[in-house]
Structures are given as structure tokens and as C-alpha cells.
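thought: user wants a sequence for this fold. calling inverse folding tool.
action: design(structure=
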């Protein structure tokens, strides 16, 4: 199976453990991800607050590049996912915007199509690859772990697809397939503070602390998130013993991948201490 991989900016920097682990997992699952050539920032957060058309064009340009391959797009970043899904939805409903972004892309001989399929990595693993396929590849079941599934706010936004309700279940299903027990807590979809960590640190840390406090009351021994920024924010929020991993790392460990290749050794809090792991720097 071939898909276009759109990393977005964070996967090459602060969320590199997410990128490396997700790519490693896809390789084991027999999925070929082709990284989109000449991709650009999706136009999320800062750009959209300054100039919506610029933000729309940035997202649409990536889909214009992907349109050359005629393959679905997969991205691990919820912000990128929402940006791409937003421009698809808005352009279907607003022909003026659709024509404008295509006019801008014509200078590069690109064409934007609203038919392009876009998946977030969580949706992709659960609904496209399939839970049965993943279950058949499990070599190191995560039995004995009580895992808190923290979605963050982006994947339940109005532009998300398939897992957008206030009671999402994709993470729970994935956790169960890997042999662990998902635990419920009230703030699964609460914002962690996002980019406020760099502007309004007190408010951001308050949000992250609320999430961590609610998880600790469940006796969970691990947190998993499908968002690289959420993983970083929760790790920065407070010095705690509860490890936070991304879905690539969780699935990769269950598939028996070397934890060094999953960047487990780059985390602030050591994870998966109950499972024998030979963490190395390779």
C-alpha cells in the first residue's frame, strides 16, 4: 500500500520521535509512505490568525503537490491534519476560495483538488490499516499496562473526520488491540495549552496540570497521545513519574521494534519500565 506522507514542520524538530516511530511502524505493517517533495508549512495557528487566505494557500499548496501522485495523504500532526481538512471542506463550499487558491498555484503548474483523501495517523492505523492487521503483528503485548488515552483538542475539531465526536474511541480500540487496558478520565479532549506554552506559560501549565491530575487519579501508569505538541507540553508541564508517549512509540513497542529506533531514549520521563527493553542510541 502506498500513501503520501506529509510530515509538517514539527515532525522534523520537536516531534521527531513521533515521525521516526510512526515511519518504523508503517514499514513493519507493509505500508510505503512517500514523503511529499517540496512540502511547506500547513499554515496553521499563527498564519491563519494573520491572513486566512495565505493560510489557506499554504494548506492547499501541499494538497496540490500531493495531487500529482493521485494517492491519499497521511500526516501525524493534528494541526496539519485540521489545516488540510479545513481547506478541503471550505473549498467545497466556497467556489471563490477554490478558484483563488488554484489561481495562485497555477504559477507553479499545480492544481488543487477537493477529492484528495487526508488521514491523521491515528485514523489511518485504526480505520485504513485496520486493527486486525495490527493485532497480527503484535510481538510484545502491552499486558499489565493501564494506559490513559489523551486525544487533545484538534482531532475532535469540526474539520476532523471519522473520530470527531466528544466521545472518541480510536485510541481505546488501539490500546486494547495491543494488549493493554485503556482508562477513562474526564479531560481526554481538553486542550493541553498548545502554543500558549511559549506565550502564556502560566495558563498553559494550568491546562496541562489539570489533565495530568485527572489521569493520575485513574491509577494509569502510562499516557498515550496522537499529538506531538501535546506530548511535549505534558512532559514540560511538571516533573512527574508518569511517562507520556505517542501512538507511534506505543504501537512500535507492541510490534517488538527496538526502542532506540522509536526514540524512547530521548524522552524526559523513562517509559515502559515493566517491559524489558534494550534502549540504545542507534
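)
observation: tool returned 282 residues.
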Amino acid at each position: 500500500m502506498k500513501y503520501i506522507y506529509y510530515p509538517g514542520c514539527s515532525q522534523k524538530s520537536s516531534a521527531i520521535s513521533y515521525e521516526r516511530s510512526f515511519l518504523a511502524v508503517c514499514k513493519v505493517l507493509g505500508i510505503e509512505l512517500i514523503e511529499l517533495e517540496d512540502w511547506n508549512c500547513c499554515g496553521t495557528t499563527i498564519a491563519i490568525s494573520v491572513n486566512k487566505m495565505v493560510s489557506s494557500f499554504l494548506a492547499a499548496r501541499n494538497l496540490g503537490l500531493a495531487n500529482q501522485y493521485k494517492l491519499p495523504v497521511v500526516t501525524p500532526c493534528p494541526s496539519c491534519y485540521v489545516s488540510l481538512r479545513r481547506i478541503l471542506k471550505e473549498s467545497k463550499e466556497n467556489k471563490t476560495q477554490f478558484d483563488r487558491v488554484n489561481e495562485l498555484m497555477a504559477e507553479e503548474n499545480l492544481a488543487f483538488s477537493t477529492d484528495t483523501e487526508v488521514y491523521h495517523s491515528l485514523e489511518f492505523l485504526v480505520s485504513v490499516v485496520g486493527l486486525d492487521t495490527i493485532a497480527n503483528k503484535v510481538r510484545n503485548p502491552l499486558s499489565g499496562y493501564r494506559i490513559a488515552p489523551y486525544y487533545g483538542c484538534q482531532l475532535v475539531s469540526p474539520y476532523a473526520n471519522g473520530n470527531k465526536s466528544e466521545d472518541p474511541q480510536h485510541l481505546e480500540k488501539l490500546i486494547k488491540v495491543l494488549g493493554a487496558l485503556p482508562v477513562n478520565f474526564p479531560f481526554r479532549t481538553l486542550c493541553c495549552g498548545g502554543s500558549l506554552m511559549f506565550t502564556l506559560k502560566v495558563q498553559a501549565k494550568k491546562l496541562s496540570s489539570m489533565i495530568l491530575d485527572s489521569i493520575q487519579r485513574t491509577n494509569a501508569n502510562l499516557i498515550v497521545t496522537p499529538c506531538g505538541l501535546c506530548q511535549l507540553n505534558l512532559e514540560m508541564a511538571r516533573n512527574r513519574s508518569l511517562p507520556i508517549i505517542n501512538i507511534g512509540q506505543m504501537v512500535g513497542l507492541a510490534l517488538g521494534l527496538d526502542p532506540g529506533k522509536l526514540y524512547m531514549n530521548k524522552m524526559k520521563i523513562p517509559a515502559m519500565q515493566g517491559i524489558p527493553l534494550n534502549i540504545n542510541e542507534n
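thought: summarizing for user.
answer: Here is the designed sequence. The domain at 138-266 is CATH 3.40.50.11810 (Rossmann fold).
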